[in-house]
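Backbone-to-sequence.
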């Protein structure tokens, strides 16, 4: 499953915002090849992903996946933004395609609902 930005935003709104932040926050999801600003609080977290090569159809699970999480608070506007960027992997068989990950539901729950902190 590759969650949509709306699914991530809903999970974040349901599980994280009410109990963690005093200001309104929104979430954006970036793809592997998109650039995220370095401003703000950045950290990475290890996650389990699944992949399927769009060229040779090989499937695999990676226990060494990584998601980059960036938090920025605009103190003047009193609102913040969380940016997520999962990292893709290249297929080892055909080495032709860099694939975006699919998420296991439990990993999405962990990242969207519990691992995003300002600490």
């Amino acid at each position: 499953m590759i969650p949509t930005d709306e699914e991530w935003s809903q999970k974040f709104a349901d599980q994280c915002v009410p109990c963690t932040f005093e200001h309104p926050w929104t979430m954006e999801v970036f793809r592997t090849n998109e650039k995220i600003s370095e401003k703000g609080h950045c950290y990475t977290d290890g996650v389990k992903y699944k992949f399927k090569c769009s060229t040779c159809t090989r499937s695999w699970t990676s226990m060494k996946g990584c998601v980059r999480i960036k938090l920025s608070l605009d103190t003047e506007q009193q609102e913040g933004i969380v940016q997520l960027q999962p990292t893709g992997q290249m297929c080892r068989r055909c080495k032709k395609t860099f694939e975006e990950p699919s998420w296991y539901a439990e990993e999405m729950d962990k990242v969207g609902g519990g691992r995003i902190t300002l600490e």
